Structures are given as C-alpha cells and as structure tokens.
Amino acid sequence: MPNSTTPSSSQALEAVLARVDAGLDASLERLYALLRIRSISTDPAYAPECQRAADWLVGELSGLGFAAQARPTPGHPVVVAHGPDQAGPHVLFYAHYDVQPVDPLELWHSDPFEPQLRTDANGRQIIVARGASDDKGQMLTFIEACRAFKAATGGLPLKISLMLEGEEESGGVNLPPFMQANRDELAQADIALVCDTDMWDRQTPSITTMLRGLVADEIEITAAARDLHSGMFGNAARNPNQVLAEIIASLRAPDGSVTLPGFYDDVAELSPELKAQWQGLGFDEKQFLADAGLSLPAGEQGRSVLEMLWSRPTCEINGMIGGYTGEGFKTVIPAKASAKISFRLVSGMDPDKIRAAFRKHVEALVPSDCSVRFIPHGGSPAITVPADGDYLRKALSGLSAEWGKPAVITGSGGSIPVAGDFKRILGLDTLLIGFAHVDDQIHSPNEKYDLDSFHRGIRSWVHVLASLAE
Amino acid sequence: MPNSTTPSSSQALEAVLARVDAGLDASLERLYALLRIRSISTDPAYAPECQRAADWLVGELSGLGFAAQARPTPGHPVVVAHGPDQAGPHVLFYAHYDVQPVDPLELWHSDPFEPQLRTDANGRQIIVARGASDDKGQMLTFIEACRAFKAATGGLPLKISLMLEGEEESGGVNLPPFMQANRDELAQADIALVCDTDMWDRQTPSITTMLRGLVADEIEITAAARDLHSGMFGNAARNPNQVLAEIIASLRAPDGSVTLPGFYDDVAELSPELKAQWQGLGFDEKQFLADAGLSLPAGEQGRSVLEMLWSRPTCEINGMIGGYTGEGFKTVIPAKASAKISFRLVSGMDPDKIRAAFRKHVEALVPSDCSVRFIPHGGSPAITVPADGDYLRKALSGLSAEWGKPAVITGSGGSIPVAGDFKRILGLDTLLIGFAHVDDQIHSPNEKYDLDSFHRGIRSWVHVLASLAE
Lengths: 470, 470
Prior knowledge:
The structure is a homodimer.
Chain A: H1 10-22, H2 24-35, H3 47-63, E1 67-71, E2 78-82, E3 90-96, E4 116-119, E5 125-128, H4 136-153, E6 159-165, H5 175-181, H6 183-186, E7 191-194, E8 206-211, E9 213-222, E10 228-229, H7 230-233, H8 240-249, H9 272-279, H10 285-291, H11 305-311, E11 314-323, E12 332-333, E13 336-345, H12 351-365, E14 371-380, E15 383-384, H13 390-403, E16 408-412, H14 417-426, E17 430-433, E18 448-450, H15 451-469
Parallel strand pairs in A: 3-6, 3-7, 7-17, 8-16
Antiparallel strand pairs in A: 1-2, 2-6, 4-5, 5-18, 8-15, 8-17, 9-13, 9-14, 10-12, 11-13
C-alpha cells in the first residue's frame, strides 16, 4: 500500500475530522440509500433485499480499498472485508445490516423505508427510518470514518477488517458456524469492535466491558397421570402447581439473594476502582425504577441497583403455567405445570455448573411420586474486557478526545451473543462502543438516530482508530 | 284422593315390588323414549329438544296423577309436579332431564340417541345412550317407583313433589332464581331427594351426607408498569412470577396443612361413629392414588385419604400463569402474573371468612410497590345432613332392605350446588341417593347405566318411599 499514512500528528487527525464535517451531507445520503433497502431478515419475502444490502456494502467497501465479499450462509450473506495490511493492531469491526419488521405500520408517522431528517420536540435533529439506529446508522459511523481517513490521508491508520451480518434480528444461528468455518482468517485480528450499544448519556460516551451471561432452562413437573377434579381429589392428590410454586419460591431468600448452593462461589466483588467509577456515574436508582413503575430494588439488599444489574447474577422466572388459565374458573388439579427459568451470570460463573446446581436443587424438591423434565434453552458465560487492557485504555482516550469529557466504563445486564462468540471462537476481546440513545425506539415504530449520534459517532471512530493506531 | 293406600304392611310393599319387576320392560321402553330426545342444554340448537323432554315428563307425571307443569325460565323449562296431599312427610325430588353434548361422536360404538341394551365384558347388561346414567336413567328410577305404587296400590305412599331441571349440564344459573321465585310453594316440602350420585360399590348402596363447599378466588399480581427485559432489569425489578410463587408456596405447610390463620378453627373432628364407619368401608387408598398415577397422599399427614377428601378442607391452585409460556424462550420479566385458587370447605366453615383470611394473607405478602387484584369466582358452604336425622335413618333402612346389606353414609369431596340451594333458599336438607357407578362414562362417549342400577334403583325407591312414609 504505497501512500498509507498514519495520522500520528494532530495535524493529520484534524484533517480527517475536517473531512468528516465537510462530508456529512454526502455521508447522510449514503446512509439514506442503505436505509431505503428493506432488509427485514426474519421475513423470507425480503431475502432479496437482504442480499441487496450486503451487495451495497460490498460496493461501498470495495470503493474504499477493502477486499470485500458477500459470502453465502444457509441464511443471509455475511459481508467480510479486509483493508490493506498495516503495522500496528488489527481490528475486526462487527455490525449488522438487517432490521426488524415494521409492524404496526400505522403507528409510523412516515414511511419506515423513506428516511426523513426532522427536528424533534427537544429541538434535536433526528434521522427517522427503520434501522436508522439499529444498526445501519451505527454501522455507517465506522465506515464513514474509514472513508474520511481514506480521503484525507490516502489510507487507513491501521489494519481493519469488517464482518457485517444479516441475521442479528432473526436469531443469528448461522453466524457462529460461519465464524468457526472462517476461524483462521478472522482470528488474525487482535481486538473486535462492535457498534450496537448506547452512550451513557447525551454528553458521555461509554464502553461496555461487562456483559452478563445466561443459562436458560425449562422445567416441567408431572404429578398425576391425567387432569383430576379438585373436588374428587383435592387434598389427596399432589398439585403440580403447588410443587412448582414451592420450587420457584425456594430460589430466592428473603434478602433477595439466590439460594442455589454455590451460586455466588465464583462471583468476585467489584474492584474498588470500578465501584468508585460506577458511583461517579450519577445513576439515579429511584428514577430508573420509577420509569418501570417500581420503587423497591428486588435483588440482594445492600447492593446498588447498578451492581444488581451489571455485576451480580440473578435468577428470573420468565414464564410459568399450569392448570386452567382461561376465562372464569375450572376446578381442576392439572397433571403438569411448567416454568421457564433463566440465570444471568457474571464473570467467573460456569454455565454448566450453574445448570447442574439448579437441576439438583429442583430434583430434591420434587415429591417421589412426581417427575420433572428439564428442557435446556442455551447457556453462555459472561463477558468481561480486562479493565486494564491497552486497547480499552486507548479507545477510552479516543472517545474522551471527541466528547471533551472522560468516557465511562459500563456494564450491561443483558447478553450480546456475538461478543461471546468472538471470545469463544476467535479468542478475541470485544470493545462495545456505540452512539445510540435509550429513546431511539429501536424495534418500535418511528425508530430514529440523532444526527449528532451519526456525526459525532463518525468523528469518535476517527479518534478511536487514531488512538488505537498509536 | 279417595283410594290412596300406604304400604304399611309388608304385603302391600311386596305387591309394589312385584309390579316393578313385572313392569321392567315397559319401564325400559319409557326410558328409551326419553333417551331418544336430544336434550343437550348447552347448545341453543337443541332448545326445542329440551322443551320436548320437559313436555314428555309433564305427560308421564300427569298420567300418574301429578299436577305437572313445564314452567318457563330465561333458559330451559323447569318441570314442577305435585302429587296428591297425603299424611306424613312431604318429599321434593330433584333430577335433571338435560344431557351433555356427545362429542367426539366418532368414539361412540352406537348412536348416542338410539339406546341399546348390551352385555358388557363383565357379563353385565347395560343401557348405552347419552343420559342413560346422567341423569335420565337415575331420574326414571324414581318416577317408575311412583308408577308401581300407583299401579299396585292406587296411590302414592306420601306427599311427593318433583322439580326436574334442564340446565344442570350448562351452568344452571336459572335454577336458584326459579327456586327463590317459587319459594313458598317449594319450601312446603320437608326433605329434598336428589338422584344424581353413585353407589359405594355394586353391592353397597350409599347416601352422601357431606359435600364440601367452595370458595374460588383469582389473584392478579402487578409489578412493573410494562413487561421488562430480564437482562436490562433482572435483579433490580420485582418479578411477579416470583411474588406469586412465594404466595402460593406459603399456603401449605410441609406437613400438608393449609397455613391460613384460623383456617381450621371451625373444622370439627369426625365423630367416632362416622370415623369407624368410614374405616369399615374398606377404601383402598393405595389403589385410589395408583388409579391417578400417584402414591403419596398430599394432604395433612396422619389423616386417612377419605378424611382428606370428605371431611378436611383443602386449598388447590387450579391455574396459574405469568410471562412467556409459548415455544422456546423469551427473557421477559412480565408485568403481571395470576392464579386461580380454590378452597374446598367442610361443615362449619364460613366462605366469607375464609375468603377474607385468604385475601389478608395475600396482601401481607405483596411488596409495597406491587399491587394485587382479587376476582371472586363464587363461594358456597359445605352441606352436611345430620347423621342422626330421622329421614336419613329411614332412607338408609329402605336401601338396606333392598340390597340385603347395610347402606353406608359417605362424603363427597365435590360440591353439588343444588343441595346448597335447597338449604339456603328452601331451608331443606337433602338426601343424595343414587345408583350410578364410577364406570358409567358420564360426560364421555358410550355412557351407560347398568340394567341392575335401573331395576334395583326403582325397587330401592319403593323401599325408601315406604320407609319414609312409616
């Protein structure tokens, strides 16, 4: 690559940023072109549109000097692109080009696939379209940053690969095998970058370094061989609803902790540094709960809500059913009752060990003339990016440079499976950096992305890539 | 009524019984005629058939000298008939002329409305048709007994009224108001007779004197204002499934007793006589539970299964639901969870008091930022016929005379609402006397009534009526 330049000087960096600013209208036009493609992955009728989105990305990336291909899978294609070889670290960027369905269409104020630039009630400029935020807008912040480097310096500041999938909104079952099949190629990267998360608030960029894992299990208790009449059998016959309720009730102690033996054995306390940093976030527990219509934190007493959500495991009853649940009343003692139960795990916890402890606990509570069947629904460990890592430090510094205040490190109570796959299949840590906001209405009508998210998101990636290249 | 005769002599009684035996074929033909009428009460298409059945009964009863009418209700008619005034007690006989639907029709071996007399695998003669047992066959045992008295003696042995309803299989909401509206007329009786129950076994007649009452309540727990994501909120947000399970689990102690404060306060111990009589029934607890696929009695430890079913109250979870219960898994913390819960009551327990104790107990367990809504689903007290009553003693003696062994007194874990209505509205005790068997397949395809149930049922009523008239 003859003329590649690293923006090691602040002058070069300023030139790239100036290029971002000057090219914003053109960047927006490209985003609109992508948003017009109806790449709804879950609906087979839109498969050609998913292919079109992948082809569009290949075209754009090829134009920027990437070796780009839309590679087939049993589902929608995965776009893989490699930039020219460079000294320094090699980053692998992930985003997804597919979008959620648009129902209910009547609640949209404009065509979901005809992007609009509007001013919202707060005076902010917003881009309204399906996928504006999740994830086409976020994806293009990175690609437009690459474009600005190319235009201002003739090349990229470091070795960049991209993997852009088309099934994130529809289960994503084909991505892990794809990563496995292309392991040697993809694992050459040093760090993965994912742009699919929120900022902490409108002024504060963040990197999510802790994602909880998940163990999901379904249990079905069988008592009698058939449904029984509660008059004819009530008291004598075991009621599986009662058995199931007793099992569920036994999973939480009155202090909010989970009672499974050994559940907290591998759970580390927060480092004093991280604890102090989270306290400094100014998270309003009362407001967070009030927004959901609640006022009492339900987890372990004595811990902050952010700890409960980000650094403590939980057990949740996601569903339960048994007996007659229709209108009116039916005096039945059902034969079966069942529940869907999940555990969110934190770093250090072994999904298999937790599942085994859960099943052992349940089995001990099932009366000897009843039986229990377990149906597994997947499991994945928690993900933690080492807080003292070099890439993390550099990325934080890049974000802080753009936003003029320190970027924060956050956790997330949810799970982002691709981060687990990067670690498990490719051995890569992931930096989750995004510019979305909680009010973006992703998956809902009138999805939007702040123009500021898009513009300063592009600028942020310029800073982060420059910082990583140093 | 000029020539009415009471069969005070055994000679007269023998003449009536001989008449029953001689007239059995004609009695069967009349039963067949009634069984051919498709009086399915729940299906409006069969309303004319219900009217036909009522009219048919009015015709038969008028022919026997009753003043009989099919009286309209907002639903199907109630047949009310009064025999001539007589000295001695006045009995009010209840049965129902409506039947269950016949689905699934393909499982019937013959037309449900074309009665067949067959020999079953045990060599017993059986009458197969919808309603053969429940309740047309049982109803005609009484009417044919009246016919035999009329034929052999010229009259009835005591004052007899009948109330035959047509909505027992479809909710029966019109009967209590009908009884209320005709209270002065119907309450002139001294005792109610109901023919809608089983014998204890094929050799042993029984009178059911204890029916459990019922309090049914639905509770709905609301936690958050909307469904939440269990990753984003799990641990911090209250899970109403967990709250509901803890409430349900709290209702039973490990020893199988119900924990509501005061629940057993008004529950009397069985009299030593009744306890001894029940022990003498030779009830096979193991087999009873094994038939349902169970082996451990679930109620209060140290009590017999018959006690658990007949003389001890219970709390049953008839239905519960919350969160995602479809295929697969959804990581939701639902906003609401609900359960349908019923209490079977025994004599002395006040339904209102039990409902209040339940609701107070639940309210104390609901976290202060959650709410609970209660939806009542009816309540009725238990029914007990005094074990030392004169009518009961005479009826037992009549049954024993026919079957050649002592009739037994049994309880029932279920509730027969009309018995409660007789007590509540008319102030009458009820003697529940029936000749059906557990294998009659009522409500199912190939319903049958043993010819022996029909024949000796008629003879039994002759004995019982004669005994009551003494």
